[in-house]
Request: fold
Amino acid sequence: MRFVIALRCIECGLEYEPKADRYLCEQCGENGLLEVEYNYQKIKLAWRKENLKTNSDRTMCRYMHLLPINPQTPRPNLRVGGTPLYRVSKLGDKIGLSALWLKDDTQNPTGSLKDRASFLAVLKAQEAQATKIACSSTGNAASSLAGNVAALSEKMKAFIFVPQRAPAGKLAQMMAYGAEVLSVRGSYKDAYYLSKKAIERLGYYNRNAAINPYLIEGKKTVALEIAEQCSWVMPHWVVVSVGDGCTIAAVAKGFKDLYQLGWIDKVPRLLGVQASGCAPITKAFVTESPLRETEENTIADSIAVGSPRNGQKALMAVKESRGRFINVGDEEILTALKELATYTGIYGESAAAAAWAGLKAAKREKLIRGGERVILIITGSGLKDTNNALKATGEPLSVPNDAKELLHLFSKKGWIG
Ligand SMILES: *Cc1c(COP(=O)(O)O)cnc(C)c1O
Ligand SMILES: [Zn+2]
Reply:
């Protein structure tokens, strides 16, 4: 927090004092997303990348100088961040990519990258003296908020608005963590606006990544980790699936911070992946027209966002990185889910696997070349959505309870010897 200068509106440039409960620009309303500005000169004097070598903190708080929080604020007792980066040759070989890595964010405490934002939200809520925090979510933001609240010693209660279609695994998870869960009979957009009204009326702390400027600062730690894990030598591309657009904008922000500090000498190009049945950001990018609401017609629930709340930030981030957006169909996503698990041992949910499907498409279209270094961010665990995974895998082989017949079957399959 020492190094935060202001919150600045991305529309009109107006600056605000960095209060914990400042969300949007007063002039620009819903378009007036704010961005946290740091004094990079001051950070440079206080912090060097060599300092990280002796830093034993393996959570995202390892990058405290680049976080808008007070180091004294009580934290959820969970290891958020510090997820592994794996080189995955078998997967890369499938499409002729010689240097492919996976950033496995399924290994966050509640199973998704959203923990990075929720962790920060729980800190900011306390700094705002709130004891109630609310969000609307397609699932992961909600279950991660519930988990991070559960892991806090201080008094805090989470209220969560989910659209009816949220997968059972995510629902069960957030209920188990003890949050108040409100299943809105409507779309994600409906859940969002209902939560907005409730939050305004009741004065809860707002953990909607869309408008809370601090959450991107939590999510950006995935980029800080990637850079450190790559010894500050940047890949050519980072691939991430896109719903609201907060995650991809956050990845860009993380690299931008490091570039400003002079710790990296270029920023990677970003490939944003959307589902064909719900791709408002790709459409705006390709047609260079304003964002328009679309249907939410995809199995990949975490990126089924018809009216993305961070679309503008996402578009700017990808443009500045000289990146691209690409769409993938549900069939491709299901195939990708299975391949990802089979060739890497990492079981991602459909929205996470969409990133792999998008990379395959980009390689096919020769947007990405075989020799380029690529990092795929795997944003959430498959364990929360068994229904979609079963669509990808099919049912197991049903066998009679009889050894002789089993051996016969094995020999027919060519599994013997
Ligand atoms: C939220 C989420 C995304 C997309 O992040 P946005 O900020 O909505 O663009 C991708 N994958 C998973 C698993 C998610 O939970
Ligand atoms: Zn403004």
In short: The longest strand covers residues 157-163. The chain has a mean pLDDT of 95.
